[in-house]
Amino acid sequence: MASSEMSEKSDSANSLRLQTISNHLKRGSNHLVCSPCVSDLDHGTIKPGTRSIPRRRENLLKWDGWGYKDSQFKINEKGSVTFTGSRYKLSGLVMPHLRPWMEEMGLNIDEMAKSEPKINTENVPKPTLNEDFIDELNKIEMEISTDPVDRVMRSHGHTLEELFLLRKGEFNNRIPDVVVFPRCHDDVEKLVAAAVRYNVCLIPIGGGTTVTLAVACPDNEARCIAVVDMTQMNKILWVDEKNLLAKIEAGIIGQDLERDLAAMGLCTGHEPDSMEFSSLGGWVATRASGMKKNVYGNIEDLLVHVRMVTPRGVLEKNCMVPRMSAGPELHQFIIGSEGTLGIVTEVTLRVRPLPECQRYGSVIFPSFEDGVHCLREIALKRCAPASIRLMDNDQFRFGQALKPEAESIFTSFMDGIKKFYVTKMKGYDPHRMCVATLLFEGDPEVVAQQEKTVYEIAAKYKGMAAGEDNGQRGYMLTFVIAYLRDCGMDYEVVSESFETSVPWDRVSDLCRNVKDRIRHECEAQGVRYPVLSTCRVTQTYDAGACVYFYLGFKYRGLADPVASYLAVENAARDEILESGGSISHHHGIGKLRKQFMSRTTTPAALGVVKSVKEYLDPRNIFGSGNLIE
Amino acid sequence: MDLLYNPEKSSLNEDGCINMLEELQKHYFGAFKLATKTYSPPDYIHRIKRHPSDIWKRVMKSDRIQWMVQRIAREECAPVESIMKEVEKILKKLAFTDHLSLVRLLGFCLVKVQFAIYQNGVFINTSAVEKLRAMLKRHPVIFMPSHRSYMDFLMLSLVCFYFNLPLPAIAAGMDFQKMAVVSGMLRASGAFFMRRSFGSDRLYWAVFTEYVHEIIINGDRPMEFFIEGTRSRTGKSLNPKFGLLSVIAEPYLKAQTYDVLIVPVSISYERLLEEELYAYEMLGVPKPKESTSGLFKASSILGNNYGSVHMHFGDAISLRKYFGHLNRSVHATYPRYMLHLSEKEQNCMKELAYKIVREQQKNMICSPWTVIASVLCLYPDGISMHDLVQNVLWFKGVLDLMKVKISWSSDGIDEIIQKCLHQYRHIVESSICNDIDSSWINISSKVSERKSLYTETAYNSRKALTPRLRDEAVNYIILSSYRNQLLNYLVRPALVVFSLDHHLVSDSSNVVTFFMSSLVKDFEFLVHLLCKDFIFEPGKMSHDLETGLSDLTVNGSIASTADEVFVVRKHAGRLHSFLKSCFSPFLIAYWMACQFFLKNKGSYKMTTVIVQIQKWIGDHQKVSGITYEMLSINLLSNTVHSLIDMKGLTTHKLGKTKMVEVSSTTLQDISCKLAKFIPDLPELLTPKMQPPFDSSKL
């Protein structure tokens, strides 16, 4: 149905689109730097229409860690760290500075905590099946699975405590009892109806990249839990180039969506760090934010229409307009509902023509505060590039540690000169300086103008342009850092990232306080090794910024590493709230941050959310237990 | 150049203190060695090194100042530039500078002076210093020393310099600014000068607040504030000022710093440099203007021994821990440069302020002289050596049981008393007698030769007390200021003793008992009345009552039998009447003030009323029960404020002058209640018959 509609419509726009693409390719040689940070994307090796994640995701992806099986940090036979596989720019390269850096953190290659080799199906809890429900699903020919591996693969996100448990070969008390694979919106309607009839708990899952325990099954759920794997609903239903809209099924994975749209000369521009693996429905459900939101907007800006199936019926608007005044905005209740109200099935997004030009850049600042002031002014002047990120000194040095082996003696000689120039001639303190990475996108003229303005403002704050390479490496880091966590876990390190948003005047103070609090709490927990406590400003807005923290430490000697880790993260969250930051900028609440919800707003406000839930889902069919009690 | 202070090598006394002066004297040219030593204090980890002038430049650009300047410009239709000029002017007057060489010079002079006057040494508890060193690296630190003398901040800076701690930025009074050369030197060593009062000047307040915040947040230096606001002239602690504390706590409450540590510092002087100055000030001679020439005149002190000084660094109070229960995110919904403290926070601030003063009190070390002075105060006509020794021994026992810290030397009590009497021979004289026991000790009527400090014009400037009366009274005032140091510890049991008088029940077998609950009303009245003179944490009344009761229990004068029932022991009389006698001058002074107002109803100017009362009491000096110490301006000013608080007096504004008016029924009521506690009410028409303290009762 959907595809035929698409072909009819697209006939008229066909010639126009082809022209765009050819224009684009022609100019490409001069201006377009294809983004090689994300695996495969834009390499042109994968055909449009390919769906990268198979139904049996364990065939391609790690079952006990992040990302592709073939990509991981490893210590090679020479004792240096290398990144395996061939998917990323870093793949196959040796990073000679990484191991010394790891050893500074107290890592010892002889002290390992290896993961179990595979899922031990014998230990998987037995399913609690609701026979009537299963019968009903079989009757309507819904694809279901009770295979232990399928169930385990969809029982968790990527929260530290979940992975820690998996690696030990253990499972939560409750994991999904059955996996359901709907194929279209109607399937979901039937499925929800059946669940209501037989009182079955439904938990929707897309890419499963949540870091807030949002897809974990509540321990005390006695009913049969059906996890609804949305990834088979992955079609682009239509593209409307007149209005620059695309209707897409919610299960599509980010990289597939962008690849297919790129083939038409379009993009959504929504690039969360997890875009290789996370799904559109997940972005809507968690109120996601993309790296390039300065150009394209966050998910709430991109979303024009959405359908959500709830126990009370389908929630959607009957028009597809840029804005309307008709009472409180319905979409705002769907966005960020975290699977507690229903299942997002189809989303209409704004799309944009592919940018003609993309350029990386970087600026080094003598101190984090200088950088923050610079970002603030850039936000004020509204000249922020598609992405601008400011890393603190620790992260800057960490980034340096990830530098691959110099290709030639000349490059390494040049690196030395640069370092000498910056630290000795310019007087930047290597223990204070930090770097901002930039990504410009758009028309070449606009980009050129933007670059000029940004570098001028940076100069006002003692910022010095530090080249495209540093910028690109910064963005590449985004995609590989999750892999590094797995490597850390092999060597007894627990680590995690979390985010917040905060007004400009509080950014520096919040960063400093939270990093201090992490260190103090680690001390209180008895952590014996150096603590990685670092942050970066990742998004800028008129009124404030998004700050992202990394936290990690070697846990050897602690009785319960996960409990200690959680105590530290909760302390950090407490400090964030006390310092005037938000409970979350884009990760959401899930079950991990639920305990802090009452501190972020008034009881009346929480009551509103509860009452909507009670109306739409009185029997708590969507019983993931996210957001609020 | 060397570090000079070495924790391993320094010799500790039994209290864990080192004698800094003695340590210095171990070296040849100790003062010179100190002045030229290596000085590399630890740094606060988040500190960005900058020049002191960068601090005020940042202040000029700060949001708070910009906001305030814009607001004033709008409201007063004044150009922004001129207001900014005003800001710059304020800042230049305020800001400290940083010249280590001047600090070294100052240190050199100071040590020289201290060698001369503190012949018994300067003692510092070093274990706290080492803890402090670690804390200074992690958090901004605020020193809050007790304030008895100008020597306080010189002393603290010197000690910091000696121990290689960063020199504090000192919030000093504007008074010093007029001293040529000296003000420059103080500034160079970190003093910044604030106006005494700037309640209504919002621009000044904003500039001052921002300046302090700038220093706290970047941790350029630890800061030093005097929570009592000014030097206490009477030996008692002063009630704390809350405004400054709010300024200090704000960066923490607004999450601009991770924590702020407040270190209460107790500086106890065996003998105050300013003892006589204060006494005259209390008698109405205005404080001489601080001037460099005055300082040279004061150099006469160099010949005297002022005993020892104890500087005790208390346990740091972490605002993060102390305010841990406060939700700081309430400040997240408005700009941080607007000050907005919730009622809850303000109350916490008050509590904290009292806690700091109480901590200071706790760690004060009193000299044996305070014990002797307490006894002497009760015998205005003198006492025999034998009785003095007996009374001192007995009182020492009482204080020991209450764990009051007194620096008794290892000498015998006779010797200690002899030494003290010698040291304070300018206040007390003893008739030389072959039999030491029967030699007579009384308060000297001689007036010191240091009158040169007070010019004749000062004497005549206010037609209050006659110079003669002042000279008669001055030694009594000095003596009482030493006794007062101990009253901080005695006030709670004393008020219990006053309260229980009217609530005793005796049974057939003459066992005298009372219920704790029956005391509450009287105790509460007295606490309310005396809360300006003594430190009572607001809202802690029942705790104070319990403390008072337990102090008496420890001394065996009362014993708890059943729930809240206490027995008064047979031998309680001595302690109880002693305590009463110590405090009755206060009660009588309050009562006298009531009588003054009741006799002359009408309205008074706030600025002159105290002097009027003083004069009136001066006229009644011959009446029995009236003593010289009741002439103290501090006492009378506290009285007036307390009566205002209790609504016996009301205030209103007449134009710009604050007026006090008598509210007769309430005042009459207070006066009657008060009279109940005074055993021998002065008969205002009869001449003086006997001393207020009846020694036969002992």
TrEMBL record, chain A:
This is Alkylglycerone-phosphate synthase. Its EC number is 2.5.1.26. It is an enzyme of class 2 (transferase). The keyword Ribosomal protein does not apply. InterPro entries: Alkyl-DHAP_Synthase (IPR025650), FAD-bd_oxidored_4_C (IPR004113), FAD-bd_PCMH (IPR016166), FAD-bd_PCMH-like_sf (IPR036318), FAD-bd_PCMH_sub1 (IPR016167), FAD-bd_PCMH_sub2 (IPR016169), FAD-linked_Oxase-like_C (IPR016164), Oxid_FAD_bind_N (IPR006094). Gene3D superfamilies: 3.30.160.650, 3.30.300.330, 3.30.465.10, 3.30.70.3450, Uridine Diphospho-n-acetylenolpyruvylglucosamine Reductase, domain 2, Vanillyl-alcohol Oxidase, Chain A, domain 4. Residues 172-354 form the FAD-binding PCMH-type domain. Keywords: FAD, Flavoprotein, Lipid biosynthesis, Lipid metabolism, Peroxisome, Transferase. It holds the Pfam family FAD_binding_4. It is found in: Peroxisome. It comes from the Eukaryota. Homodimer.
Automatic annotation (TrEMBL), chain B:
Pfam families: Acyltransferase, GPAT_C. It is found in: Endomembrane system. Residues 141-270 form the Phospholipid/glycerol acyltransferase domain. It is a peripheral membrane protein. Keywords: Acyltransferase, Membrane, Transferase. Its main location: membrane. SUPFAM superfamilies: Glycerol-3-phosphate (1)-acyltransferase. It comes from the Eukaryota. Belongs to the GPAT/DAPAT family. This is Phospholipid/glycerol acyltransferase domain-containing protein. It comes from Clavelina lepadiformis (Light-bulb sea squirt).
